[in-house]
Model the fold of this input.
Amino acid sequence: MIPSYGTPVGDRLSAATWRPGAVTALQRLRTELHTHRIYPAIAYDEGQPRLVIGDDTLTVWADREGMSFCWGTVDLEQPADHAPADDLPQVARRIAEQLGDHYTEPDIPP
Done:
């Protein structure tokens, strides 16, 4: 049985099959953001994969192929900024700077 669109399982299935490039890019960016002590949640609302940082403080999404990221305070509308996905450290740094000074210094292992 195929899960219905609009249900959590159906949304995840849609995101995984329809936009695998976007999902992969967002997972890689999520890992990179962890070095800046930013721990976004992955959301699949209505099949659109995205990262949610804080209490909807910032939303990050990728294009269908996972070649570029957009982020802003309003989901999927007029991004505050965008960047190519091939430079994850730079994208993570820019997002961290936008969130505030306490996020900008990455963790340095002992």
Observations:
- The radius of gyration is 14 Å.
- Strands lie at 41-43, 50-53, 58-62, 68-72, 81-84.
- The first helix runs from residue 8 to 18.
- Residues 1 and 10 are 11 Å apart (CA to CA).
